[in-house]
Amino acid sequence: MNQKNYEAMFIIDPLVASKEWNRVGEEIEKIVKRYNGEMISLKKWGERKLSYLIKKQARGTYVLSYFKAPTDSVSPIKNDFHLSEIILRSMILMHEGEVKETEAPKDFETIGLRPERPQHDDRDRRDGGGYRGDRGGDRPSFRPNPEAR
After folding, report:
1. Report field, pTM of the whole predicted structure over 0.85
2. What CATH number corresponds to the domain at position 16?
3. Which domain holds residue 49?
4. Staple partner for 61: which of 12, 56, 88, 92, CB 3.0–4.6 Å?
């Protein structure tokens, strides 16, 4: 069997990651071993706000792992990660070269976060709250003038 090194990044349910970290490691390792793989390392990077809700979660804990597995087993491993209840998202890449222990970036909590959206005023466009289009101002009237006939 031809085994290669793989790098996997996971987004884990933050509640499970904080209270049951051993369960997270066991779940990932169990899936990899099921398909004759071998875990090399598993490292929790930290929690961060997600750009959009994933399985009704606004935050996720990022976990980086490296494992060896037969090349034909990567697809079923991906499927099992997708079916896991504690893994919100996963991504697996082939890793060439030596596996080194990596640390989370120092500014991990801020990388890729979009600034908060500005709060809009309370005017509702359906209730005649005004038209803001590209030019701003009120919406031009397109109703024909009844006196112009």
Report:
1. no
2. 3.30.70.60
3. 3-94
4. 12
